[in-house]
Amino acid sequence: MKKADYLDLIEKTIQNGKYKDNWESLSNHKTPEWFTNAKFGIFIHFGIYSVPAYGNEWYSRNMYYKKCREFEHHIKTYGTQDKFGYKDFIPMFKAEKFNADEWISLFKAAGAKYVMPVAEHHDGFAMYETEYNRWNAKNMGPCRDIVKELKTACDDNGMVFCASSHRAEHYFFMNTGRVFNSDVNDEKYADFYGPAYYSPEFYGDAMHNTTADIYSAGPDEEYLKDWLVRTCEIIDKYRPRVLYFDWWIHNHAFKPYLKKLAAYYYNRAQEWGAEVTINYKHEAFPPNVATFDVERGALTGISPVPWQTDTAIGMHSWGYTKDNKYKSADKIICDLIDIVSKNGNLLLNVGPKPDGTVTAEEAKVLREIGEWLSVNGEGIYGTTFWKKFGEGKGNVSEGFFKDNKEVRYTKKDFRFTYKDGSVYAFQMRPNGNDVLIKSFARRDRQDFIVTGVSLLSTGEKLDFERNKKGMLIKSNGAFNSSRPICFKIEIG
Predict the structure, then answer these.
(1) Helix/strand number for the chain, H first, E second
(2) Which end of the chain, C or N, has fewer beta carbons within 10 A?
(3) pLDDT more than 70, % of the chain
(4) Cβ(441)–Cβ(467) under 8 Å?
(5) Strand bridging mode 307-312 / 291-295
(6) pTM of this prediction?
(7) Is the pLDDT of residue 452 over 80?
(8) What is the CA radius of gyration of the chain?
(9) Looking at the DSSP assignment, which residues form a beta bridge with residue 346?
């Protein structure tokens, strides 16, 4: 379909649908119940950047930026950027061992409920077959529609399929190659690297401050229309239940197009009979139109609306790199509990190798998370927040890019969730001894009655007593654990 025809289709769908392209109408859309019940999903950064496997997934930009270590590494390893550019990694990106069913089986074993591949990263290479970009994985590299295969595997295994597009940032992303002799300036590759919009404000490190400013220069109308069409193509071809965007869509120039995109997506989903949502950062959407996402970060308290943290097992890169460091399953389990207690979801990223295999380190972490969830998941899935998220001095730092720091929890730190008449109390650092939960101290008035306490992992009923200091739960051998344990507290 020609872009002009697609734009007409978008307008007609909005005109004839329930949702219009204004915030008043879109505010009637709610975050779906399946999403708030799921709690845990898998993010996938798999692309050309896994071939050099150096620095991080921004290799496509940094290899052209003289201040970055990737610039010199590239010259020493592959040659100068005019002779060997980012495009030349594509034939090396073969994904010859990629098996969507194996990936989804691993993610399911981890306890995840939804799966979100990056359909297109900032580098402009689409991981799906598309009418609007010849630089895609079906035509080149793997010569397979990776996104389609993952969707099929999700559908076959009862997992919810979602998708992420980082196309917005491609407008300027490759502009570091504009200021010296590189293949970014070769017109033969303009449809891949371009527009690679250059201005001093978008060049080098200045780009971060510029794109953070909602009022700074945005993309031109041609690019915005192209972005809208490409995103709607993903919606129509793959029907993702969540559509995730990275940061720059909060720029003022995107606002009219975000309204059209959301109205089109929500109307399409209504036609399918599906509940969907959009993940956004910063202030791209009003809080009741889509679902807020905190990248590599968290909140310090309960959010009144559902939200999500996206983070990675890898500490230094979302995509595969040879020297990446990995978080432990213990840390991620603690993060998951904390996020859920505050009305959030965890979207956990893996970065597969260029041959299509998940790293041994990430696979091990995923299996360990799954083992823990297999006996403690009742206190996670389908829960909501309690009247307070927890107790104790341990807490995260609020904001973006703070997730690599581990919280020093103690035996006094708890997190709470609630479901069907029971509070689930997670002791974040058990030490095998009796447990005192101060939040369940007995009060003479306006109190709730505790009718029973059990250890969730075993189902064993536990002895307890309540006084004005708290609720004391008597220990047994199962309290000895290197990972959080959960008490199911039944309220009468």
Answers:
(1) 14, 17
(2) C
(3) 100
(4) yes
(5) parallel
(6) 0.97
(7) yes
(8) 24
(9) 40, 309
